[in-house]
Structures are given as C-alpha cells and as structure tokens.
C-alpha cells in the first residue's frame, strides 16, 4: 500500500495542458493548471478505483501454466 507509487503513475500530459480543463499546466501543479484541478483529478482517481498496479498483479502467463 504505497500511495507514492500511485502519484508517480499519474498520467502526464505531453501537451503541457491540464488534463482536467485543458488549460496550460502550471509547473507547480504539473500536469495540472492549479491545485484545484489536481485535487479534482485525484478525487476522481480514488473514486473510480483507478489502479494501474492491478495490471501487474494480473499475471496472465501464470494462469496459462497448467
Ligand atoms: Zn485545470
């Protein structure tokens, strides 16, 4: 249970635009334009149970082994 990992996994925009409202992102709140957008996005993540780590936990190769 490491929240730090999730923070690193946040999707970064290559366009330099806030993924929440498409405004130019602020270096202080990258990739968001403001703390407000950062908080909103983070809240959506938690609510949706967005978990990239789960992909790594699903070892399909192991399931194929009989
Ligand atoms: Zn924004």
From TrEMBL:
SUPFAM superfamilies: Glucocorticoid receptor-like (DNA-binding domain). The gene is yacG. Keywords: Metal-binding, Zinc. This is DNA gyrase inhibitor YacG. Zn(2+) binds at residues 18, 21, 33, 37. GO terms for molecular function: DNA topoisomerase type II (double strand cut, ATP-hydrolyzing) inhibitor activity; zinc ion binding. The keyword Acetylation does not apply. Interacts with GyrB. It comes from Terasakiella brassicae.
